[in-house]
Amino acid sequence: ITLIDGRFWGATGHWMDLRLVITSVRMKPALWLTSALVLLAGCSHTPTPAVTSRESDLNSLRNAQGAAIEAFVSRNADHMVSAYSADASLMFPNAPTLQGEDLRTAIRALAADPNFSIQFSTDRVEVAKSGEIGYTRGTYTMTMSARDSTKVLREKGKYVTIYSRQADGSWKMMEDISNADAPATLVRSAK
Question: What string of DSSP letters covers 73-119?
Fold first, then answer.
């Protein structure tokens, strides 16, 4: 190190002002302390509560399910279809998975069946901590015309419906899965 007129030749191969070096050495503990305090303050910061609370998410999902159930009970085809997201899947017992236009056609056929009726009993509603996905689970009893339309059948079973929160904050069914407890039983012959 060569010291000339308050400057020295540093290890970097450049002339450096000794006053700047001394100041920067003195600032290091202060800078370190400031950095540590900022870091600790960031760690101890209480997170901002989510815009919607868990209870609010659960209530909004219950309301969405209630609206979907009402659409099915009233056989309102448009409302039944609109309860599903655009990319939804519907899984009936003993049938292939329905999506897109096939899903909408099946739902409209149910609504058009003069013997169709359904009751639901929900025993669980859950929403993920993120608030982006939720599900409902329960049992159902559905009455409908047989495929050959000469009989009226009743099916009892279980369901799980997975909902996704949409960009507008609403909930739509994205996976609707039902599982019959046993084969449908004959209620009566169709009129």
Answer: HTT-HHHHHHTEEEEEEEE-TTS--EEHHHHHHHHHHHHH-TT-EEE
Tell me how far apart the alpha carbons of residues 168 and 64 are, in angstroms, rounded to a whole number: 13
Q: Using the 8-state DSSP alphabet, how is residue 71 labeled?
A: H
Instruction: Please state the φ and ψ torsions of residue 42, each to the nearest 5 degrees.
Output: -65, -35
Supply the pTM of this predicted model. 0.70
pLDDT of 139-154, one tens digit each? 999 999 998 778 999 9
Q: For 73-108, how does the pLDDT look when each residue is reduced to its tens digit (9 = 90+)?
A: 999 999 999 999 999 999 999 899 999 999 999 999
Determine the Cα–Cα distance for residues 161 and 163; give it in Å rounded to an integer.
6
Query: Do 128 and 150 touch, CB atoms closer than 8 A?
Result: no
> 185-189 and 151-165 as β-strands: parallel, antiparallel, unpaired?
antiparallel
**C-alpha to C-alpha distance for 3 and 182, rounded to whole angstroms:** 95
